[in-house]
Structures are given as C-alpha cells and as structure tokens.
Design brief:
seven-stranded mixed sheet; 407 residues; alpha+beta; binds fe (ii) ion; Metallo-beta-lactamase, Chain A; 16 strands
Length: 407
Amino acid sequence: MPYQGGFSPGIFPIKDFKRSRVMEIAPDVWMIEGYISSNFLKNPPSCNCFVLLDEDMVLLVDTGTYGFYREPILKILRRYRQEGAKRLVLMLTQGHFDHVANNDLILEAGYDDVRFLLPEVELTTIDLYNHWNNEAVELLEYYNPFRMLPMKGPTVIPNLVSRVSIELARAIFRLNTKILFRGIKTLADRAEILTSESRIKKQYGDTELWGWEVGRFFAIHDGTHSPGHTSFYDPKYKLLLTGDATLEINPPFFNGSMDACIDYMQRFRRLAEQGDIEIATDAHRSSIWTQKLQDEAKYDPLHPLQKVDVVTGKQDCAAFYDFFEEYFRALKAETLGILKRLGQATIPEIVEEFRASPNPYARFKNIIAFPKLPSRTDVMVANILKEADAPRRREGNRIIFTPPEKA
Ligand SMILES: [Fe+2]
C-alpha cells in the first residue's frame, strides 16, 4: 500500500504533483522532482529522487512520499534494465518519511540483483514512529515540546493537553504520528547495514570525507540533517547531491546536528572552490515549488541560488555552500547571542526573542517556520544548546539554561 498518511488522507494534490518534472541533470543522472507545499501537516513534502547509472548498476537515491512518484521512477529503472543494467541499489540520504515511503518499489523494477544499503546510525531515524515519539521524550529534558506546537490544526490538542498532563499529550502525539506515517513500508528489515567502521576516507585536495563507495559514486556520511545523513558524489560529472544537508530548515530534529551542517558546508565549499564540484542540487531544491512557497508565504529568498533546480559551475556551487554556511552560522550565533544577552533563559524564552530578531537570517527562518515547513525553531535552539554544552538546571517546571563556556 502506498503512502496514505497526512491529516487529509486521500485528498492529495495530484494536480500539483503533475507539475513535477523529470530532468536529466547530467548524462544518465535523473532527478525526479518531488513536491513541497506551504502546509506541512495537510500536504507533507515529497523529496526529489535521483537515479544514477554506472555501467550495469543503477543507484536509486531516495523514493519520496507519495505513490504518484513510483511510476516515473520505475519507468527509468525498467528502461535501464531493458538496456542491460543488471543490479539495482537503493540508498537514502536519510531515513525521514518523505524520503523512504516508496522504498518497496525496488521489488517491482524487475531486477534479479536488488540491494538496499542503509547506514547503521540511521536505523533509529528510519524507525519513524519510535523516532518521533522518543524525540519528544528526549526534548522533555530541555523544555516541553508540546507547548511549542502550533495552535492550529491537529497540533492544537497535544499543545493544550500538555498543560494538564504530559502523559496524555504523549498519547495524542503517538496517535498523530500513526496517522502521519500511515501506509509506509520502509523495508528497513531487509536492508544491508553499513557500519561506521566500514567507511573509507577520501581526500579531495585539502578536504577529507568519510563514506562508502558504491560503483563510481561515493556516499558521503555527513551526519548533518540526521545521524546517518548521506550526500552522494559522482566524480565523473563532478556532481554532488546533498540531500537535506543544504536545507533552510536545518536542523529539524534533535538528532540532527547544526555543527555538522556548518562543518560540511565548509567542506563542500572547499571542494567546489578546488574545482571538484560543478553540478549541485539537493533533495528539495526546485524552482517551481520554491516560487510557489515564496508567493504563498510572502518572502524574498536570501540568495538567488535558493530558487534554482540545479546549481552549475564551480563558482556558483561554491557560492551555494558558502550561503548555507553563513546561514547556519548566523542562526547558531543568534541563538547563543540571545542566551548571552539574557544571562539565563528557558528554550521558550529564547524562541520568543528569536522570533523578534531583526537579523535577516533569523527573520527568514521565522517566515518558513512550522507548520508551513518542518522547520521547528524550538528544536533548532535545543540542538544548538545541546551541542554547545550549555549548562541547564530545573527550577519547578522551568528548565533554565546559562551561556555555555565554549560559545
Ligand atoms: Fe526531506
């Protein structure tokens, strides 16, 4: 059964999906464009999926959310099989639901040799229901995450209820996640596990990367958007697919890493500057959906390269990663700057200040905030405070943070 979830089951915007394009972004490298709406809970996103051919092996990267995208992906996979491809490999940039919901399509492509390779450190993330619910419990050590849920749509109830009973709020949240993930078969139980010890190191000029070789491609373990987040590099066409590492919503989960986002933007920028990257895109880059989002949410992009399908040329690729490095650094500095200014604060207090910030990067982050996109400012703040080792103490119901030494 394909994906049946979301909070308006069965009412998927098929008319919108039909606008999604299939683009050959380099010879035998296909991007099946996904979907983004400005209402995450009503119409969740579907990622861009990629098919890359290397001799007799086809690498499929991500499978999207909606059943609609199975056919365009299968069409390319079947065509390559008819033309002589023998092996099909599925890999994921991450285990989030909008990247894995059609994973079982690999069993329909007609290949005898089918493998699904999954980093061990991503196993807890691809366990969708437990990931979301365990995260809520972890966050309770930092603040009450339910109180930060939007006061509209399906998140109103857990928010209100959490003021009286956290246990009841958790039960309602569990129900919400069941609805959101309905119909998804991740195939995680039949995946071949890639251990961290099996990674190899590759040196590109002065930049070191760790990951796994898959044919001519290098699956770079960057741990940005999720612990096992992986970007894909094709040395033949100097092409880098960065999944959700280059997304404006980072880090949307507590197990992502703002520090890794900053670190890898720097590494990828260096690679581009050295001439190793000439074609760049990611799992949600799309000129049509960004334009739609911009019209609906009424904002101007911070950088023109946010609005393209694919970035091309050494200079623009370097500028693309440079922009994200600057953006992530600014969000981190703003968060820690607020805590320093306040001297001590709870996460909701820091979020309130952040929402009023005149900083252009913070303002942008505020415009795209949940539930428009899965961009949760409270989770980002918690993530930054965790990584900076900000001291915290409990006073009654309040969990109070003081500025970290290393900030
Ligand atoms: Fe995504």
